[in-house]
Amino acid sequence: MRSTQERNYRDTVFDQFRLDGMTALVTGAGPGLGFSIARAFAAAGAAVALCARSQEKVDAAVKAIEDDGGTAVGVVADMSRPEDIDRLVGAARSRLGPVQILFHNAASHAGQSLEGLQTDPLSLTVQDWQSQFEVNLLAAYLLAQRVVPDMKAKGYGSIINTTAVAAFRPKPNIGSIAYAATKAGLTMMTRQLAKECGPEVRANMICPGSLSPTGEMRDIWAPSMKGIPLGRVGRSSEAVGAALLLASPASSYTTGTTIFVDGGRVSGVS
Description:
It comes from Dactylosporangium fulvum. The protein has helices at residues 4-15, 33-43, 55-67, 82-96, 126-154, 177-197, 240-247, and strands at 23-26, 47-52, 71-76, 101-104, 157-162, 201-208, 211-212, 234-235, 258-261.
């Protein structure tokens, strides 16, 4: 029989990953990574405010969380619009309480071939660049600008931004030059937030590789498979552990870093 002391230690270890009493905000919560993370945060005890660009996706995510017994508020919002960011943060604060966990997953791929087709890297328009800058980079700043004061007042905050393999390794011929540049900028901005918003607020990154909701292959990923030591596409749910770690007190001494959930593609073994 285990002693009381041993049982208490076991409980303490797992309690570090709980998010009870916290409010989490998740952008880009349509099917895939954002939805998996929002659902996991709710399962760990957080009340979750989430957004996507369609009512159908928002409703599906909220229903899944509520069916699990969790609490969620959904907002249709476009992260390229500062007024939508204000509306999202306002809804989270008024209905769930001040945001303590921010997971920014919304992204723009404007001008990029998501089917892996050959694309002239110099064919992107000003509008393509503006879209990617506004969603991939500026939105992360505006979100932080709006939630960090509450995080500091609460004495706890975790910002988690989603970067990309393209921020670390060029992916030529598919028009990803703007995507790579903005995600690389996001990576450095997150490190800057970690430097300037502590000690109450931590800021970290997750770098997902080729992830899809159920691990299905897409044409755009086929050329990269030989460089992935695990030899397969990942499932969106396989990033849950990294996100839950970074959101929770279990990573209380971790800031300014990136966790790669990429099958080993970038992280030094491919």
